Fold this sequence. Notes:
Strand order of the largest sheet: 8-9-10-11-12-13-14-16-17-18-19-20
Structural class: mainly beta
Number of strands: 20
Distance between the termini: 78 Å
Radius of gyration: 30 Å
Amino acid sequence: xxxxxxxxxxxxxxxxxxxxxxxxxxxxxxxxxxxxxxxxxxxxxxxxxxxxxxxxxxxxxxxxxxxxxxxxxxxxxxxxxxxxxxxxxxxxxxxxxxxxxxxxxxxxxxxxxxxxxxxxxxxxxxxxxxxxxxxxxxxxxxxxxxxxxxxxxxxxxxxxxxxxxxxxxxxxxxxxxxxxxxxxxxxxxxxxxxxxxxxxxxxxxxxxxxxxxxxxxxxxxxxxxxxxxxxxxxxxxxxxxxxxxxxxxxxxxxxxxxxxxxxxxxxxxxxxxxxxxxxxxxxxxxxxxxxxxxxxxxxxxxxxxxxxxx
Length: 310
């Protein structure tokens, strides 16, 4: 005991230096994981740009040098390239999800819908897109808030000798339950026929699993017409899978009960991204009572154009 007391009091300088050594070592071990994390975050925040030149070329990469006359871009395909600023038409900052293996993956112009039916995602406030199917079907969709949008559409049959014209509104609420993994939505298609007929529409709810590039949706909808609502819901099962920088596989399927009979509609096709325009194509296949002995399919052709962004 006496030796221990003497050790504490006779060698204070050694003890202090040892204490500080171990204190700094412990502190260093504590800080190291945070340093690695911060370094990783800085690495993840490398900015990627899309540079369009006036002669029609396009380059994707990181700007490693910039002065008053030029920028030097580090690209995966061409290495370092120098571009004069006078030759640049546009410079766009890209998100990390838009660049895959050095290729630009165009943003889906209609990530909130399949061919026609909606999913649980909503469009951003201030965004607008126009959808057209086979010339006659026309619809505009507007983003109001992060969770609310509405659409307005018509089939302009009045152009043909003043024929009755269907018009509709489609308010929709979208709620992200787990961001980019699980969304729910609810809305209504509220329509009427100008020049003949009464009110019609669908009240619906949807559950979407997956992100905006790969998802599947289960939906239930109750149709109504002239104040009467269907006793049985229409069931929908739809899917969207990205296949590459400019392509998607789409499917949209329904089980419909009229109260007298039940039949199905299957659809298979895709979406091709041409710059910021989405071209949808596919086949709609009615499934009637088994054993009818005949088969036919109706082609689907439409496009979607973003026309406004906040």
